Amino acid sequence: MLRAWRRRSTLREPDRRKQWLATIVRNEAFRQHARVRPIPTELVETEAEEDARVIATVELADLHAALRQLSEKDRDLLEMRYTEDLTQGAIARKLGIPEGTVKVRLHRARNKLRRVYVPR
Fold it and tell me: Which domains does the chain have, with CATH numbers?
């Protein structure tokens, strides 16, 4: 309607005002339809992926901060179990201690980590 108002001086036949206005509206609709616009769902998915990456980074930083609060012995034990993916038996052989001791120490280390690690 703004385009019609601005172009009102182009109306040559006042009795054909409706047809003139309909032509302007139709042409404007074609112009709007032809305009390239981003697909809203792609923007939302991209933003969601970026948000997930930011959240994962923050949670990883929180986890590392929590791990630094544990003793070196507990960190080493958790690293062997979860980073090196060693079994409890393999950890026991590597450290030269009974497997039951490894189970207890892992349990305690996980509990300590759980208490200090609070994801946002």
Answer: 2-34 (no CATH), 40-116 (1.10.10.10)
Residue 90's Cβ-count burial label (10 Å; 0-12, 13-18, 19+) is: middle
pLDDT single digits (tens) 29-74:
888 777 777 666 665 666 667 777 888 888 888 888 889 999 999 9
Instruction: List the one residue out of 35, 55, 57 whose CA is nearest residue 47.
Output: 55
Q: Based on the number of CB atoms within 10 Å of its own CB, is 32 exposed (0-12), middle (13-18) or buried (19 or more)?
A: exposed
Residue 21 or 96, more confident: 96
Single pTM value for the model: 0.55
Distance separating alpha carbons of residues 69 and 33, to the nearest angstrom: 59
Cα angle 87, 88, 94; round to 5? 90
Contact in structure between 119 and 65 (CB atoms under 8 Å): no
Residue 52, both tokens: 């997930």
